[in-house]
Design goal:
Oligomer: single chain
Distance between the termini: 32 Å
Shape: elongated
Largest sheet: none
CATH class: Mainly Alpha
Helix content: over 70%
CATH superfamily: Metal-sensitive repressor, helix protomer
Strand content: under 5%
Number of strands: 0
Number of domains: 1
């Protein structure tokens, strides 16, 4: 991770470093699944086979989303608990958590 990226992620997580690099192999697999689905369409495969592949891709993306959100929320919680933040910063993080949860429902 570049220095500027590290600084950006630390600010976004209240000074707590979060590294999402472990998601890259999963996203690469998903990328392969999407290419495979494109080939299925090109080859004229059955619609239900393609729909099944779409479901697998969506579920894989949801797992990445869940893990990244979990790491983000854990970092925000840690930042709030460490009390290195002002009351305003804690309020902004609490609002961010609420907005994230609202968008997922």
């Amino acid at each position: 991770m570049k220095k500027t990226d590290k600084n950006k992620t630390e600010v976004a997580h209240g000074g707590i470093e979060v590294n999402h690099d472990k998601q890259i192999p999963r996203l690469s697999r998903i990328e392969g699944q999407v290419r495979g689905m494109q080939k299925m369409i090109t080859d004229g495969r059955d619609c239900l086979d393609i729909v099944h592949q779409i479901s697998a891709i969506i579920n894989a993306l949801r797992r990445v989303q869940k893990d990244m959100l979990g790491e983000h929320l854990a970092a925000l919680g840690e930042a709030i608990i460490t009390e290195n933040l002002t009351a305003q910063q804690r309020r902004e993080m609490a609002d961010e958590i609420a907005a994230l949860l609202k968008n997922l429902t």
